[in-house]
């Protein structure tokens, strides 16, 4: 590990997508119910993901949530947009 670098914290990494999902949802004024309906999931599952109780959301589930927002799944995973599909 490089000098001054913090040790890897798996829970911080796991909470990232949930925090981003909550921020995106709140920014659009959506309830968990609205997001769940758009993503084709149960409201309780969205709540679990947002609170990082469900830290093993599958790629398919994350893609569904990202699609509900009209975003690339990379935005949820690491906060960065994915590749430009036009390229």
How would you portray this structure in words?
This protein is globular. It is mainly alpha-helical and 87 residues long. The protein has one domain: 434 Repressor (Amino-terminal Domain). Helices cover 59% and strands 0% of the residues. Helix 2 (32-39) crosses helix 3 (43-50) and helix 2 (32-39) packs across helix 4. It has helices spanning 10-27, 32-39, 43-50, 59-69, 73-78. The protein starts with 9 loop residues before the first helix and ends in a 9-residue tail after the last helix. It is built from 5 helices and no strands.
Structural key phrases:
0% strand; mainly alpha; 59% helix; 87 residues; 5 helices; 434 Repressor (Amino-terminal Domain)
